[in-house]
Amino acid sequence: GNGSGSSGKVLGKVVAIGLSHNTASVDVREKLSVPEPEWNDAAAALVRESDSILEAAVLSTCNRFEVYLCCDDIFRGTLEATAFLSKRSGVPLSQLRAVLFVLPEDEAVWHLLRVSAGLDSLVVGEGQILSQVRRCFEVSTSDGGSARKILSRLLNVAVSAGRRVRSETDIAKGAVSISSAAVELAALKAPPVLNLQLRDTRVAII
Q1: Do both 151 and 116 map to the same domain?
Q2: 194 lies in which domain range?
Q3: Catalytic residue IDs
Q4: Nearest 5°: CA angle at 159, between 155 and 163?
Q5: Would you state the pLDDT for residue 20?
């Protein structure tokens, strides 16, 4: 790969590649999942094994897997990254392409801002994803990270935007996790459906 090295190509174009609860089954998400201690290794391998990828950052959670790339050629970088992910996960390329999203430039930026704000989450407004984006920023800009000028700036802005959304809007009011949403729904439904208060009902968690 050429990294950000001697070719003189320091800046590039951003692309986001990934899948989420919206696009892929749990089985596929688990195969692509990368534990946090391995985020930088995966990102470094992407840069090292590519001729087009200059920077990389991995964001992997239970509900999503995303890589943010800075490429000097988005088309080529996307092909190289997709092949890398297929090889690493064992998911055939044809199957992977069917569930991956590829978002170039402004679309990639907008997507990350939506993710950080909690707008792309299973429960809109949940707070955990902001912490995960913050960790992505911290990890990918650390000594072993592969985020440089472009991606470090993008991730930093995303964290700031996520904080502002939560402090300046009502998005985080009410249920902000799947479990709390389930409890709120049960409390709402129990009296009319069962003629009981939630505290008097038996609940099975599946």
Answers
A1: yes
A2: 174-206
A3: 62
A4: 165
A5: 80
SS3 163: helix
Confidence (pLDDT) at 162: 86
CA 36, 57, 84 angle in degrees (round to 5)? 90
Asked if 76 and 100 sit in the same domain, the reply is yes
CA 93, distance to chain mean position in Å, is 20
Query: How does DSSP classify residue 34?
Result: -
Tell me the residue ranges of DSSP E strands in 61-178.
Answer: 64-71, 101-104
Write down the pLDDT at residue 23. 80
Please indicate, yes or no, whether residues 58 and 86 belong to a single structural domain of this protein.
yes
**Contact in structure between 149 and 11 (CB atoms under 8 Å):** yes
Contact 52, 143 (CB under 8 A): no
Helix or strand (DSSP H, E) at 152: helix 149-168
Task: Say which residue the tokens 């912490």 belong to.
Answer: 131
CATH number of the CATH domain containing 109: 3.30.460.30
52: tokens are 């087009």
Q: Where are the beta strands (DSSP E) in the chain?
A: 13-20, 53-60, 64-71, 101-104
Same domain, 80 and 129: yes
Residue type, 186: A
Q: Verify that 184 and 84 share a domain, yes or no.
A: no
Token representation of residue 78: 């996307």
pLDDT digits (tens, 9 = 90+) for 45-71: 999 999 999 999 999 988 889 999 999
Number of domains in the chain: 2
Tell whether 17 is covered by a domain. Answer: yes
| Rounded Cα gap, residues 146 and 68, in angstroms | 10
